[in-house]
Amino acid sequence: MKVAVAGCCHGALDKMYETLELLQRRHNVWPDLLLCCGDFQAVRNEADLRCMAVPAKYRHMQTFYRYYSGEKKAPVLTVFIGGNHEASNHLQELPYGGWVAPNIYYLGYAGVVRFRGVRIGGISGIFKSHDYRKGHFECPPYNQQTIRSAYHVRNIEVFKLKQLKHPIDIFMSHDWPRSIYHYGNKKQLLKMKSFFRQEVESNTLGSPAASELLQHLKPTYWFSAHLHVKFAAFMQHEANSKEELPKATKFLALDKCLPHRDFLQQIIDVEHDPNAGDSLEYDAEWIAVLKATNSLVNVTQSSWNMPEKNGLYAKWDYSATEEAIKEVLEELNHDLKIPCNFTLTAACYDPSKPQKNTEPVHTINPQTTEFCAQFGLTDINDRIQQAKEEASGRGEYEEEEEEEMDSTGSAEEPSEYNTDNSGLSSFNPDEIMLDEEGGDEDLSTCSVDPSPDHPPDFSTSFSDIRIMPDSMAVSSDDAMDSNNEELEKSGGSKQVEEKSSTERPLKRIGGDENGNSGIKKIKRRNQAIYAAEDDDKTD
């Protein structure tokens, strides 16, 4: 079957699906499944926009609400994970996954499903070490810290995924697995994104948690987005035993998806079960793992480690036995079809009746309630609500909330990973300035709708249908074999680029208008996501 993969679509669903239709007209190709690797932005209304971690001037309604309301329906089954620019309150309703609109399925904080016999897994969010060992404690209305920590990956999700024993065909993460750049064309990557050089050379670019999962799961395909550059790699895994067959992963990072460009980044042909139905299905092993790890659910800010074989835990193996998997199948009467039980849980945006002052509320989604009741799992949102009510009764919640609002950020906590990164420490013009709420820049968009008169350019990103460009599958030493002269040239060009970057006006935090006592902060941005003009300049 044909699987289309897209990067960050940023809520522009109309553009994405129109591009698929154009692809069908021009190439007579139609995918059976569409995968999106985060920053999907399932924004239903103005309250959802307030829960999205982007500056206010970038909060645009886009077109998801039309699919949520039923005005439109996705023309192809769409499965997506969360990124770091999402309507977190909406996705939080579905921690175990569920339908955000008819024919559009969210995988949850982490999840595994099947479609036509193909096993698809994913993990939402990005890695930040200071939140990694915490529970999912956030709930709307968010404050300045929790609106960000809500999308940070937690160790319990990684632990659950590491319990899987059966092969994964496709896996998705928003940020890249750390070190994956050593298995592709580093030289070309650094030529396109020279500001990655410091992180690449120090091996701190990407998520260490995703890298751990890549080494454990060894999926056939791994797709990521986040860094807004297309990059392919081929990773050959070492066998754990003589009996294990060699495995390899084809990695592809997707570029950003702009309204005037080709949203479709890749189509791959995936072997499938011709006898399987066309419905999205639960994965029995994943359900068994969820049941086995249910006692580990944490909804507090307390940091804790997952069980491991170090003599401190009575149990550390939570993988599913064949008997446990069989029990799940029996519970479902061997019918693994995911019910089409999408439910509206919030008012839908009405362009004729704007509700700009609507406040987000913490909602328990009936899909999650049904899922938890069916499999005997903890409803995370219900647990959070209970904890909130108990704390409020003791007069603790308000004090805790006030302390968070006064804080400049959570303190660094000990972690099994020694480097906190997922965003980039160096100046990256392709990252959003999260803290900026004002600004005088004119960010008028310059988009061109896919149409017979203005078709997207397929020549650079879709010249043909293929699995993986061979030119990108190179040795890990590819970027290091240049001579000193070349390195000096690249260093020189980097200095020019950095100088150009630092000449941009920097927002001053605190201090007077002359900046005598203020502190300069270089902030990450990607104005190009929302402003095509800025993209053309930065690229």
TrEMBL record:
Residues 397-406, 432-443 have a biased composition (Acidic residues). One of its GO terms (biological process) is mRNA splicing, via spliceosome. The keyword Secreted does not apply. Keywords: Hydrolase, Iron, Manganese, Metal-binding, mRNA processing, Nucleus, Zinc. Signal peptide: none annotated. Residues 387-539 are annotated as: Disordered. It is found in: Nucleus. Residues 235-381 form the Lariat debranching enzyme C-terminal domain. One of its GO terms (cellular component) is nucleus. Residues 416-428 have a biased composition (Polar residues). Residues 387-396, 486-511 have a biased composition (Basic and acidic residues). InterPro entries: Calcineurin-like_PHP, DBR1_C, Dbr1_N, Metallo-depent_PP-like. Its cofactor is Fe(2+); Mn(2+); Zn(2+). One of its GO terms (molecular function) is RNA lariat debranching enzyme activity. The keyword Metal-binding applies. Pfam families: DBR1, Metallophos. Its main location: nucleus. Belongs to the lariat debranching enzyme family. This is DBR1 enzyme. It comes from Atrichornis clamosus.
